[in-house]
Amino acid sequence: METLILANIPSPPQGVWHLGPVPVRAYALCIITGVAVALWLTLRRYAARGGDPEVVWDAAIVAIPAGIVGGRLYHVITDYDKYFGPGRDPWKAFNISGGGLGIWGAVALGTLAVWVLFRRKGLPLAPFADAAAPGIILAQGIGRLGNWFNQELYGRPTDVPWALDIYYRVDEAGRYAPLTGHSTGEVVASVHPTFLYELLWNVLVFALLIWADRRFRLDRGRVFALYVAGYSFGRFLVELMRADEATMILGLRVNTWVSGILFVTALVVFLRLSRRPQPPARTGSVEPGTEPAPGTAHAS
Prior knowledge:
Mean pLDDT: 88
Structural class: mainly alpha
Low-confidence stretches: 1-5, 281-300
Radius of gyration: 21 Å
Number of helices: 8
Oligomer: single chain
Order of helices and strands: HEEEHHHHEEHHEEH
């Protein structure tokens, strides 16, 4: 039994540090790191597809704030009972630092903002979406490390050797503070590390997207559709393992329903796009290892 306990994954002792009066949150640092990696990768891939790298920066300017707003809206809507109703404080819905960003809301509103930008610029969205998809899923994986620091989005209690130990955290006054406090060393539960399962799945989907894009020269939004399908499938399975509070619909978590519906929708879109006639290939050399899909610079 001691061996199993020693093999458990420990939670970080805290997720927030202070530089004087300024709080430094690990969750925010993970998100920022993910965004930086996604931008770097998208710049390379969009340029290889014949796009102007400067457009990537324009897209980031509108997508990042839209993604934050969309992510928060999704969280508040799907967990409305935490903010509205008897004894609740609606103003906490605006407290992003308290945790709570829904990835699908971030992707949806961020994509909408980029679509509006590209419409105004008269540029096709599909090549950019295909270039950005691997970076998005990799950024999501990096962002999941923030859930580890926050001790959130974990699964049911378990005794597997890789179980995650959840610590009791308190603030300076000794009050219970799971997000901003520091660990007392007391383990309150050993649970499935669903944050880690999703992180590993996201990295696997990232590798799949890169391989499939190079092997089959995907275009016309198929890389993005494959990203949505791949992530949704993994998220569906992970949601079935989670035990934290969530809005339920017909006995299933709301994110389970959303993931299942998006998986089917994205798979149908991918198959329909794959049946369309292939555009003529472009000529010209590109950077090795980032071969563009034929005709993507002119796709719609």
